[in-house]
Amino acid sequence: MNSLTRLCKAKINLAIDVLDRLPSGYHTVRMVMMRVDLGDEVRVSLRSDGKIMLSGSDADMPRGRENIAYRAAEAVLAAAGADCGCDIFIEKRVPMGAGMAGGSADAAGVINMLDELLGNPLSLEKRLEIGLKLGADVPFCVMDCCALAEGIGEILTPLPDPPAMSFVIAKPETSISTKWAYENLNFSKKPEGMDVDRLADAIRRGDRRGMFESMGNVFEGVSIPACPEIAEYKERLSALGAEYALMSGSGSAVFGIFDSRGAAEAAKEKFAAAVPKRGGLWVV
Predict the structure, then answer these.
(1) pLDDT at 282
(2) Which of 20, 70, 84, 112 has the fewest Cβ atoms surrounding its Cβ within 10 A?
């Protein structure tokens, strides 16, 4: 086997709190994240000449070291002592600036697939270490489970899958830079009712109502003024029957939670008719 193709799933934040800024420039966080069935399709193939060649469906996607997936491949090949290279092809589906860790998911996919193609020389701990050097969300994506994330994102406590639910995810045309959002965040302004520990406990109990009572996103306070469509999308999804609507990450994507796939599909159709100009719209 010298080639693997996988869906590198994006994430949504059921809760995200930011506690402090470290001298390193990273921030300490407490958040609950889960993967959703939306992501970039990534193919990794071994090549014998030692080169890393990256291509994809998005003409604007960086092809060299400025792409986190390229750096992931470099790190894995070096850590494994491999004398080969690889081809990486990314079918891009998750837009940049959505707050859904599309690039981090791609990097994690490359780490896991390349390790598998090389015969699994790297432990999970080593893959997580490589991921953390690339970005705070990458270790979570390497683990591929619902999790409570602490520290700068590297302290991960796996959680069971939340109760079954469907999501409508809508992204405005405007994108939000994660770097900008962190730089402008007011740490002291917390969402009313958000409680990360209570949310984690509700997930462990399979308590949907307890989840909704504990969710929240500290970034909404900075991202909504920069992109008012975020608030509009939340209100519209709630009006269409969402049990809860929240921005993911630093934005700008918003997700609404529905109790069935049918209800989510119906809401998506009405949303699409009412908001023809947008950056993306999915049901997962």
Answers:
(1) 98
(2) 20
